[in-house]
Amino acid sequence: MTAHTVEYVRYRVPEQRSAEFLAAYGRAAAHLSASPHCVDYELTHCAEDREHYILRITWTSVKDHLEGFRTSEQFPGFFAEIRPYVENIEEMRHYESTAVRGAGSAVPTLYDWAGGAEAFSRLTEVFYGRVLKDDLLAPVFAGLAPEHAEHVALWLGEVFGGPPAYSRSQGGHGHMVAKHAGKHITEPQRRRWVNLVQDAADEAGLPTDAEFRSAFLAYVEWGTRLAVHFSSPGAKPPAEQAVPTWTWGAAPPYQG
Question: pTM surpassing 0.85?
Answer without folding.
Answer: no
